[in-house]
Amino acid sequence: MLVLHGLLGMSDNWKTHAKAWAAHFQVHLLDLRNHGRSFHSDDFSYPLMVEDLERYVVHHGLESFVLLGHSMGGKLAMWYATTHPHRVKNLIVADMAPRAYPVHHQSILEGLMDLHEKNPSSRAEADARLANYVPEGPTRLFLLKNLMRVAPDRLSLRPNIPVIERQIEQLMIALPGQLKFDGPILFLRGEHSDYVLADDHPTIYGQFPNAQIRTVARSGHWLHAENPMDFANEVQRFLGF
User: Apex CA 98: angle with CA 58 and CA 111, to 5°?
Assistant: First the structure.
């Protein structure tokens, strides 16, 4: 099982779920380019990340696997499965549709750029400064997991914030309409999220004819963290373990 995090996330976000899934699968938690502990690059797009993922798969000798992705990782999972269908046994997409999305992370990226340009000396300082841009405490907590200490009095962000800000429109594009995947796929949407709407269903079924679409109650976009039990139960039901 390969797990792909979302924008401004990292593999560590999935450790709790991975420990449970490891009883049934060899689980790989990946850091995508410009995120987590992975490499930084000025080039950032879904086709490039598909190439990254295929190189990883070949390097580790993985012939076929379950592929799960959240948000940006979900769009990448769709892109990979439609271009490498022979490798993907089951596809799980968490709160992401194939359509294009408007850019809507401006305030978050402005706040992270502030921390990037002047590194904070403590998590308390980082939280206080980021609160000027991101008032929601849970969102700030998620974002500040990206901090790492690079000196006794200095913290830095793992993601390549300047490139993410510059290339953000590339991450909002639609999955090309000619790309299709006929294998089993589960779309999980958060009950209180607007990322997967009823209007998206025709496009989903057009590109993924064997899709199931299910809702995780009491959750928004970060459904795997906001209602981890129901999220895990839906994954287990779909995969049959």
Answer: 90
The CATH number of 2-101+173-239 is which of 3.60.20.30, 3.40.50.1820, 3.40.50.720, 3.30.565.10?
A: 3.40.50.1820
- Dist CA 187 CA 183 (whole Å): 13
The residue behind tokens 């269903």 is: 201
Beta bridge partners, 155, equal 149
| CATH 3.40.50.1820 segments of the chain | 2-101+173-239
Two tokens, residue 112: 């992270």
* CB-based burial, 201-237: b 16+ in 10 Å, e otherwise: eeebeebbeebebebbeebbbbbbbbbeebbbebbee
What is the C-alpha to C-alpha distance for residues 237 and 229, in angstroms, rounded to an integer? Answer: 12
Quote the percentage of the chain above a pLDDT of 70. 100
CB 163 within 8 A of CB 69: no
- CB 98: neighbour CB atoms within 10 A? 24
Largest CA distance in the chain: 54
Surface-to-core class of residue 103, CB atoms within 10 Å of its CB (0-12 exposed, 13-18 middle, 19+ buried)? exposed
DSSP string spanning 38-106? Answer: S---S---HHHHHHHHHHHHHHTT--SEEEEEETHHHHHHHHHHHH-TTTEEEEEEES--SS------H
pLDDT tens-digit readout, 111-170: 999 999 999 999 999 999 999 999 999 899 999 999 999 999 999 999 999 999 999 999
pLDDT tens-digit readout, 82-106? 999 999 999 999 999 999 999 988 9
